[in-house]
């Protein structure tokens, strides 16, 4: 459940905080008051791309924070725990800060990438924007809706089918590329022989280049090393050693007079021993430090050879050896071409059959679930004042499958008696599309158990009895879900369990949007405004209060 929103410095908003309640939350306000900004702020927090122009003038950044309580949503908690994002008492805070140069998204304080944010948000909230119902005009969207409804029945089959299709396409591509003439295969064999021989003759060993680089660097700077080491030895074995020796003798002469000097004497002796050890090891190092011209030349040539191999065949020696192994396999295929080709054809056929078997399973489930979904959408449409409506999902098999399967699904509808079923886009008006989407959302919400649904002006293009039916449907959904709805219709506003008013305040040099929760009397007055417009009479107020009373009795919770 979305328990609250905090928005700061976004568009016309200076700073607002909204605490939402369970069931049906209604937001109303005058045209231009900033209703769309509220939905925009939620979309921003959930990762939607936003223009830097949305940052309020004079502010350095815009901030949106969404507060969820998901203590009964085990899947979300498990997802966040898998991502190592801390969750306490089921409380989740999603935030996004937008600056002119970047945006940063967080979940419970942890910075997360956009895809993670969208995945988690999709489990918590479903937003239906003003124009989303237009997506119903696209057939590809219909299959997505069906698969969302069928998610539990499909299980992992869709993912397995997509993987099988990917395997089949890769093998098919390999088979297509493998069919070459004898001349081309001979050229390829000559090239592979050359590559393999070049690497084998060099016989590189992993890590060898690093060892040689270190040796080459040491030999290249031999003179500087000798000068530096010699200087250190001369200084540490000359005056420094003599000075410490005198210090030891001087302190030992008085050590017996004060026990406190014993620890200082021990430290001085340690320093003398360390210096003596250093001098001996430095002398040994210098004795071993020699320069062999032939060794230097061989090291340089070997390094040049290894670097040449890496420039052609891989970033590291391990990559070069892996490249050689790949080429040996390719050569083996060419040397046994006929056998390889037959085996590849058999693999390709088997992969295609595996894909088709999975695709047919998915298709069977889709058709069964499609009937169930169509029946449920039909019932929902009737409740939304489609009196003589018929609705079905029509399937067509694709000639060639794809990662999504072998099905094409299309919503078919007839809204008048005697009319044939036609594609949804050819029949429904804007207002009808809006109601169809509401029906679909209500069915999917029950199937998917998304806790929070947001509808931005789902009532576009409707009025009268239809508006009343829409309000009743929203109330049915709100029985088991939190619903947040922006509306301009009094029939829907009357059904609110919590009613919020969005207002715009203008001064001589400043415009800002505010939002506040209305009490019972204020809510009735706002409904009266929606009913009566500019002039609100006592009769209109009585009508508004009656609408509220009827709505209370119509609710099923």
Describe the structure.
The chain is of the alpha/beta class. The chain is built from 20 helices and 15 strands. The chain has helices spanning 35-45, 74-82, 114-124, 139-149, 151-154, 157-178, 182-202, 208-220, 222-237, 239-252, 261-288, 293-313, 317-335, 337-383, 424-427, 430-448, 464-480, 490-493, 520-532, 538-554, and strands at residues 2-10, 13-19, 24-29, 62-69, 91-98, 103-107, 110-111, 125-128, 390-402, 405-414, 422-423, 452-456, 482-486, 498-506, 511-517. The protein has a six-stranded antiparallel β-sheet with strand order 2-1-4-5-6-7, covered by helices on one side. It is flat.
TL;DR?
The protein is an alpha/beta fold and 557 residues long.
* Rg on CA atoms, Å: 38 Å
Mean pLDDT: 86
Percent helix range: 55-70%
Q: Given the structure, what is the number of helices? A: 20
Main β-sheet description: 6 strands, antiparallel
Low-confidence stretches: none
Q: Could you say which overall geometry the principal axes of the C-alpha atoms support?
A: flat
Q: Using DSSP, what is the number of strands?
A: 15
Write the SSE topology.
Layout lengths: L1 E9 L2 E7 L4 E6 L5 H11 L16 E8 L4 H9 L8 E8 L4 E5 L2 E2 L2 H11 E4 L10 H11 L1 H4 L2 H22 L3 H21 L5 H13 L1 H16 L1 H14 L8 H28 L4 H21 L3 H19 L1 H47 L6 E13 L2 E10 L7 E2 H4 L2 H19 L3 E5 L7 H17 L1 E5 L3 H4 L4 E9 L4 E7 L2 H13 L5 H17 L3
Parallel strand pairs: 3-13, 3-14, 8-12, 12-13
Antiparallel strand pairs: 1-2, 1-4, 4-5, 5-6, 6-7, 9-10, 10-11, 14-15
Helix pairs in contact: 6-14, 7-13, 8-12, 9-11, 10-11, 12-13, 13-14, 14-16, 16-17, 19-20
